[in-house]
C-alpha cells in the first residue's frame, strides 16, 4: 500500500496534465483559427474588394470605390485605387462633354454653311431663270450673293486658322518686340469698323510693353478682342484699351459697355466647340477660341469678366522680356 498509492497519484496527475495539455492545444488551435479568420478578413477581404473594383474599372464603371480606410499599406493601395477611379470618372465626363461640344459645334457649323449656301443657290437660280430683268434688281441680288460669299469665306478662314493654331507642329516666329505697338496698330485697324457703328475706341498705354512673340499673331489677338467688343457695343458707347506694367509683369484690358455675356455662357466662351450666338449673326463663334490659342502659344493668360447689361472686360497678362528689366 505504501508503494501503490503514490503510483496511482502520479498516474492521476499525469492524466490531468495530459488533459490540460490537450485542452490547451485545442484552445490554442481555436484561438489560432479565430486569429487567422480575423487576419484573413483584414488582409484578404480588402484584396478581393480591390479586385472587384478593378474589374468594375475594366467595365468602364468608374464610380465604384473600395470603401477601405485602413491605416496601413493595404489602405494606401485602396486609396490610390479610389483616386484612380476618380480621375478615370473625371476623364470620362470630360470626354463625353467634349464629344457633345464637338457635335454641337459641327451642328452649328453645318447650319452656318447651309444658310448662305441656300441663299446663294436660290439667288443664282433666280438670276439664271431670267425672271429678274431690271438691272437695279439684278445688282441687288448680286450684292446679296457677295455678302453670303463673304460669310462663307470668313467661316472657312476661321476654321483653317483654328486648325493651324491647334496643330502641335505649327510654330510662330518669336522675336523681341513692343506689345504696345501691336496694340496701337490693332486699334487703328479696327477704327473703320467702330466708326461705322459710332463706337469710340480709346487706347491708354503710357509705357512700352517689351515681350517676346510673333508680332502679327499678337496684333491678331488684340484685333479679335476689339472686334468682339465693338460688335457687342451700341452706338455712342466706348471701347477702352488700357495697359500697365509692374515689376516684371504687364496687364492689358479690353473693356466694352455693351450687352455683356450671360453667366451660364461665361465659363465656355473660349472653348473651341462652344459658340455664343446671341446678337452675333455675323460671327463664326471661333474668334475667342483663336484668341486663346494665340495667347497660350505666347504664355499669356487670358481671362474675362462680364455682367449682362453692364459690359465685358477681357484681361491679358504676361511677363516682360527679361533682358529689358
From TrEMBL:
The keyword Transferase applies. The chain crosses the membrane at residues 20-40. Its EC number is 2.7.13.3. The lineage of its organism: Bacteria, Bacillati, Bacillota, Negativicutes, Selenomonadales. This is histidine kinase. Keywords: Coiled coil, Kinase, Membrane, Phosphoprotein, Transferase, Transmembrane, Transmembrane helix, Two-component regulatory system. One of its GO terms (cellular component) is membrane. PANTHER family: HISTIDINE KINASE 1, TWO-COMPONENT HISTIDINE KINASE. It holds the Pfam family HATPase_c. It is an enzyme of class 2 (transferase). It comes from Selenomonas caprae. Residues 41-93 form the HAMP domain. Residues 108-322 form the Histidine kinase domain. SMART domains: HAMP, HATPase_c, HisKA. GO terms for molecular function: phosphorelay sensor kinase activity. It catalyses: ATP + protein L-histidine = ADP + protein N-phospho-L-histidine. The keyword Lipid metabolism does not apply. It is found in: Membrane. InterPro entries: HAMP_dom, HATPase_C_sf, HATPase_dom, His_kinase_dom, HisK_dim/P_dom, HisK_dim/P_sf, Sensor_HK_Regulatory, Sig_transdc_His_kin-like_C. PROSITE patterns: HAMP, HIS_KIN. Residues 81-108 form a coiled coil. Its main location: membrane. It comes from the Bacteria.
Amino acid at each position: 500500500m505504501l508503494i501503490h498509492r503514490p503510483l496511482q497519484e502520479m498516474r492521476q496527475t499525469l492524466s490531468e496534465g495530459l488533459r490540460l495539455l490537450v485542452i490547451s492545444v485545442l484552445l490554442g488551435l481555436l484561438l489560432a483559427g479565430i486569429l487567422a479568420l480575423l487576419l484573413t478578413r483584414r488582409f484578404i477581404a480588402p484584396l478581393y474588394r480591390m479586385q472587384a473594383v478593378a474589374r468594375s474599372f475594366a467595365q468602364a464603371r468608374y464610380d465604384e470605390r473600395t470603401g477601405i480606410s485602413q491605416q496601413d499599406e493595404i489602405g494606401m493601395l485602396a486609396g490610390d485605387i479610389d483616386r484612380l477611379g476618380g480621375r478615370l470618372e473625371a476623364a470620362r465626363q470630360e470626354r463625353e462633354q467634349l464629344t457633345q461640344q464637338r457635335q454641337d459645334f459641327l451642328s452649328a457649323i453645318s447650319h452656318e454653311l447651309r444658310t448662305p449656301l441656300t441663299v446663294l443657290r436660290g439667288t443664282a437660280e433666280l438670276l439664271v431663270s431670267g425672271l429678274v430683268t431690271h438691272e437695279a434688281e439684278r445688282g441687288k441680288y448680286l450684292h446679296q450673293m457677295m455678302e453670303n460669299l463673304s460669310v462663307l469665306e470668313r467661316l472657312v478662314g476661321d476654321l483653317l486658322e483654328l486648325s493651324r493654331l491647334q496643330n502641335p507642329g505649327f510654330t510662330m516666329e518669336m522675336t523681341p518686340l513692343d506689345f504696345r505697338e501691336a496694340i496701337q496698330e490693332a486699334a487703328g485697324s479696327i477704327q473703320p469698323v467702330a466708326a461705322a457703328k459710332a463706337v469710340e475706341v480709346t487706347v491708354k498705354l503710357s509705357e512700352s510693353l517689351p515681350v517676346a512673340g510673333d508680332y502679327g499673331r499678337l496684333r491678331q489677338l488684340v484685333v479679335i478682342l476689339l472686334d468682339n467688343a465693338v460688335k457687342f457695343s451700341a452706338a455712342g458707347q466706348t471701347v477702352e484699351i488700357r495697359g500697365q506694367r509692374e515689376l516684371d509683369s504687364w496687364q492689358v484690358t479690353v473693356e466694352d459697355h455693351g450687352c455683356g455675356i450671360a453667366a451660364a455662357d461665361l465659363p465656355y466662351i473660349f472653348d473651341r466647340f462652344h459658340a455664343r450666338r446671341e446678337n452675333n449673326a455675323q460671327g463664326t463663334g471661333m474668334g475667342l477660341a483663336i484668341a486663346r490659342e494665340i495667347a497660350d502659344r505666347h504664355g499669356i493668360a487670358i481671362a474675362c469678366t462680364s455682367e449682362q447689361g453692364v459690359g465685358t472686360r477681357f484681361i491679358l497678362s504676361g511677363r516682360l522680356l527679361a533682358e529689358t528689366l
